[in-house]
Amino acid sequence: MRIANLSAEASPFAKTGGLGDIASSLPKALAATGHDVDVWVPFFLEAAEWFRRRGTWPEQEIEPFDVTVMGASHRVSILRSTLPGSTVPVHFVAHDSLFHRPGGLYSRNEHGADDGIWRFSLFVRAALEAMKRMGERPQVLHTHDWHPGLAPMLGAWSSWRDPWFDDVASVLTIHNVGYQGIYGPEQLPVLGLPPETWTGGLVEHGGAINMLKGAIVAADMVTTVSPTYAWEIRTPEGGAGLDGVLRLKASRLTGILNGIDRQEWNPETDPHLPSHYSLEDLRGKLDCRAELCRLANFEPADPAMIVGSVGRLAPQKGYDILLEAAPELIRRGVRIVVLGSGEPALEGSMRLLEAHYPRRFKGFIGYDDALSHKIQAGSDVLAMPSRYEPCGLTQMYALAYGTVPVVRRTGGLADSIIGLHGENLDWATGFHFDDPSPHAFAAEVLHAQNAFFHRDSWSRLMKNGMKADFSWGRSANDYELVYRRAREVRGLPW
Known about the structure:
By secondary structure, this protein is an alpha/beta fold. The protein folds into two domains: 2-259 and 473-489, Glycogen Phosphorylase B (Rossmann fold, 3-Layer(aba) Sandwich), CATH 3.40.50; 283-469, Rossmann fold (3-Layer(aba) Sandwich), CATH 3.40.50. 39% of the residues lie in helices and 20% in strands. The chain is built from 19 helices and 18 strands. α11 (283-296) crosses α14 (369-378) and α12 (319-331) packs across α17.
């Protein structure tokens, strides 16, 4: 099957989180099973810098051409490379004034305005036009989140019914329903869609354009990144205002748990670690723990449990919960290492904790890929107290590295971690808590600490997690079924 993935992010070229990881890992897994897969992404400044650091550059794939948005022509180029460690093609849509901006992938324009609807509409139109010029019509357009959401809308609602779409099915994956692409109604002409898409409520939501809603309505199939999240987003509490349309789309909605790239996340081969280790020989993990202690200025000989956490500092991720619980946990003997950046107030709390509890709390502000691997390998416990978590990859990395997760029971965390309770030590992989509060989180960390000092029990938990299979092979098979279903129901009412 020929599958074209459209995404705002793709690791390692340009990413802010799990979306970038999935948009590269899933295509590689699908290609390994024999599918013809490629990836289309904007050529952001971050991607250009990635190539420059390596002294290389993607090749020009076809002659530059013009894309028209609201009557104005924009000259774009299509550049080509491959996903590292694979032969999967990556096609970059290059337009310097829209994509080569400082300040991150989703930065505003020079006037301080959010022009994402312009940027990503041009990206979609350029990608589709390039596919036509290259004679590469996919059987499935797989779009990720709202940014390329115009693609399924064009296939479903183009007023001239472009026959190019007649044999193209569409799949939308919602990585986080909280990000919807909301713009004022005056921006509707940017999309180039028939007026009835607004008057009929296809893209209109609460008096505004809602790109995610439009993509949900237009797509032949919709997936989310875990089964539990597929249920949560159909509730008023979890749907971020789109629960109604998602309930209507329930027969075309399914949750598929993400996988992880075991080439990148493997303690037996990880180049970032001072020593390698495996399920059969865990001795190298002690060296990794000692290395983390050195980096965090902890006493290596201290047997106290080390809790690590890596992520975006935001209330969604529960970092306010973790930081509020930290003083009590430190008082009870726990040491804590956090790597992340985000809200200034949470970064400030990390600095205060580090000042008050030197050699017991260490906060690394920012993101460092090598350090994230070292924290995963060197910690005893990984903490993820998320208020909601569509899937989460960090807890899966932890399991692969023999680091035991303590997670809130929500979304993909509930689907991927088996909490220890009663008599389930033979198959438990971590610890669960439900109430999103510092008290509940601290209580579960202390539950983990009690198990930590029973070395046989802890060793069993570590090994149970390392045996878990969260490779992309399983998930890729599920996506293949979704693609086949999308082609069966293409264009049919739901």
